[in-house]
């Protein structure tokens, strides 16, 4: 990450470099999550030359597994699909993604970066060469594009399909405990808040009440989100959450194509998914660590050792 961030800064001209760089202590810019099309800190890829744009993508790739990087690229490409569907009225484009770097990756022991735009937000915080990898948001609109009755684009399909498989495996009693509301919320509950809720009620069904198949599928669902990270980071996050109780909750109808929502909660873990537009074809997903987002965990360890 240090090498990739340094290469990006070196590839920018001075005005772009000034827009990209922020102080690590600038919490308003650093503790930022915005997956809607809004103004945001950083420099836009649209104004960069090919060398600088590729450097930004190489930085993003340090934070994502190959599969998650492919999902991210599909998300950015969908901006062009959505713009066409809206009659080109809003000027959406696949270059409207921004990169920001906080601190000096070449010199500082505390620094971070973010790659963000509509339906994509990846924040990494690095302290004493320990990476804190959250929040990590991926969305898709349209969630599915079909032709001849088959999907030709469905970047977040695994996140929906595996949760439905888990819901089916719960049986009537398990589903009754897991389904916490007849209607889905309008959006993910954590939204764009810089601090995610530590506990959300109701919690749904705990892992300990599931049968062997349900437990295995819930573990697979958590692993699916953690595997958005490179293997070393994913393994560390899996070890950090191992043994903690998990809860699975669903809201909304269970039939595909209708507005629905689910979440998984554990010790300093929050996974949310929603597909809650009128046609059930607009998905949001996020991996958060409510007590550790934006590097709170590694910063606390740094302060404890340094001071």
Your description of this structure?
With 307 residues, this protein is α+β, with helices and mostly antiparallel strands. Helices cover 36% and strands 23% of the residues. The protein contains ten helices and 15 strands. Strands 1, 2, 3, 4, 5, 6, 7, 10, 11, 12, 13, 14 and 15 form a 13-stranded mixed sheet that branches. Strands 8-9 form a two-stranded antiparallel ribbon. A hairpin with a 7-residue loop joins strand 14 and strand 15.
Topology, element by element:
Layout: H1 2-11, H2 14-20, E1 21-22, H3 27-30, E2 43-44, H4 50-61, H5 66-85, E3 97-102, E4 110-117, E5 120-127, E6 130-132, E7 136-140, E8 145-147, E9 150-153, H6 157-169, H7 171-178, E10 179-181, E11 205-206, H8 212-226, H9 231-241, E12 247-251, E13 260-266, E14 269-275, E15 283-288, H10 296-306
Parallel strand pairs: 1-3, 10-12
Antiparallel strand pairs: 2-3, 3-4, 4-5, 5-6, 5-7, 7-15, 8-9, 11-12, 12-13, 13-14, 14-15
Helix pairs in contact: 1-4, 6-8
Question: Main traits of this protein?
Answer:
alpha+beta, 13-stranded mixed β-sheet, 23% strand, two-stranded antiparallel ribbon, 307 residues, 15 strands
Order of helices and strands: HHEHEHHEEEEEEEHHEEHHEEEEH
- Report how far apart the termini are: 26 Å
Q: What's the pLDDT, averaged over the residues?
A: 95
Which band does the percent of strand residues land in?
Answer: 15-25%
Q: What does the radius of gyration come to?
A: 19 Å
E-strand count: 15
Structural class: alpha+beta
Percent helix range: 25-40%
Q: Which runs of at least 5 residues are low in confidence (pLDDT < 50)?
A: none
